[in-house]
Write a structure and sequence with these properties.
11 strands; single chain; six-stranded mixed sheet; 8 helices; five-stranded mixed sheet; 212 residues; alpha/beta
Length: 212
């Protein structure tokens, strides 16, 4: 791929569409990227921008390894996987919380090992290590909420946006670990060699964020 483009990894789905909208408002449009197409890569030579859509959890990998110069990834994924990238800005979209949730009325009496179901194993481990709590992590990839209902775990560590799913399953938030939102990230080498272009883009996107 040509080096005169800024290569952008966007997360597939609603979050990516919101992020693309910010880039478009910042002066980096490429309407083809959000229209129905079988193409995988979309570019606007006039704006010097090239977009491609990837699975949200893969964005940081593409950026870290240089396939993308910049990308948009949730703070949850950055903390979970710890990619070696620069975090340039908070895009203030995809807002939610990383929480500990449990069946209503649950109280941790510290009498034994706490069973924690989650797909964010590193975040959960670090959080409870900081509390000095002995835990047994149960890694799950989906339907985390069902784990305490069926007695598989005592609590869950997961992302919550509205809390509706928790309420529908008689669960409640017992602790908030940290707030989550999408962040603009950059490959370290790209930031060095395309510094002027990336800084210009980041500044323009930042202005677009402030206008939301």
């Amino acid at each position: 791929m040509k080096n005169d483009f800024i290569n952008v990894a966007l997360p597939k789905g609603r979050l990516g569409e919101k992020v693309y909208s910010l880039f478009e408002k910042a002066g980096y449009p490429c309407r083809e990227a959000v229209e129905s197409s079988r193409k995988l890569v979309f570019e606007n030579p006039e704006a010097g921008i090239r977009y491609f859509w990837v699975k949200p959890s893969d964005v940081a990998i593409y950026v870290e390894r240089g396939a993308a110069d910049i990308g948009a990834a949730g703070k949850d994924l950055l903390l979970e996987y710890g990619p070696d990238v620069y975090e340039l800005a908070d895009l203030r979209t995809g807002i939610c919380r990383m929480v500990v949730a449990a069946p209503k009325g649950f109280s941790d009496d510290f009498s034994g090992t706490l069973r924690v179901a989650t797909k964010f194993t590193n975040i959960a481990r670090e959080y409870y290590r900081g509390k000095g709590r002995d835990i047994d992590i149960i890694r799950l990839n989906g339907s985390i909420e069902i784990a305490p209902i069926l007695g598989l775990s005592d609590v869950i560590v997961d992302i919550v946006e509205t809390g509706t799913t928790l309420k529908e399953n008689d669960l409640e938030v017992v602790e908030t670990i940290f707030p989550v939102s999408a962040r603009l990230i950059a490959n370290k080498s790209s930031y060095r060699f395309k510094n002027a272009e990336i800084r210009k883009l980041a500044e323009a996107v930042g202005k677009a964020v402030n206008q939301e």
